[in-house]
Specification:
Radius of gyration: 17 Å
CATH class: Alpha Beta
Strand content: 25-35%
Distance between the termini: 41 Å
Oligomer: single chain
CATH architecture: 2-Layer Sandwich
Structural class: alpha+beta
Number of helices: 2
Number of strands: 9
Number of domains: 1
Order of helices and strands: HEEEEEHEEEE
Shape: globular
Largest sheet: 7 strands, antiparallel
């Protein structure tokens, strides 16, 4: 009996948590809404639903590890990207592009696992960069309200 109550409670909490999640909107844009890779070749996801964070053109969203609440420039949560570029390339990309999106650097640590922290208005963005096992890298972007 106790196990059944626990399972019902866990299911209810999970359902309520997922109800506020906009994860269904995290799919990269369709081919008609994508840019090219610069050579007129294959479409590259534009990730236009995230207008306040730069997205590398060679990245794909890991839907299983990402969770987003809210929308537009008021979202918070976690985006996990599998990037085609190396960790060093992704570090340079975010260091160059974050100020173009209105983010101010708070602190950075460049190492085997690099961490970059930025703030913008009432939000903080933490970017964790790790190298991939074969090629590319993983970009973990967490955005949360300040305070």
């Amino acid at each position: 009996m106790r196990l059944r109550q626990y399972l019902l409670c866990a299911a209810a909490i999970t359902g309520l948590s997922l109800a506020g999640c906009t994860g269904a909107n995290l799919v990269p844009n369709t081919a008609s809404d994508t840019a090219t890779d610069g050579k007129g070749a294959k479409p590259v996801p534009a990730f236009t639903q995230f207008t306040d964070i730069p997205m590398p053109s060679n990245a794909s969203l890991d839907m299983d590890k990402s969770i987003i609440f809210g929308a537009s420039d008021a979202w918070h949560g976690r985006l996990v990207l599998n990037a085609g570029g190396s960790q060093a390339q992704m570090y340079d990309f975010y260091e160059r592009e974050m100020p173009n999106f209105g983010w101010t650097k708070v602190t950075v640590v460049r190492a085997d696992i690099s961490v970059m922290v930025y703030d913008r208005e009432n939000r903080v963005a933490t970017i964790k960069l790790t190298g991939g096992s074969f090629a590319g890298s993983t970009v973990d972007v967490t955005v949360s309200p300040k305070g």
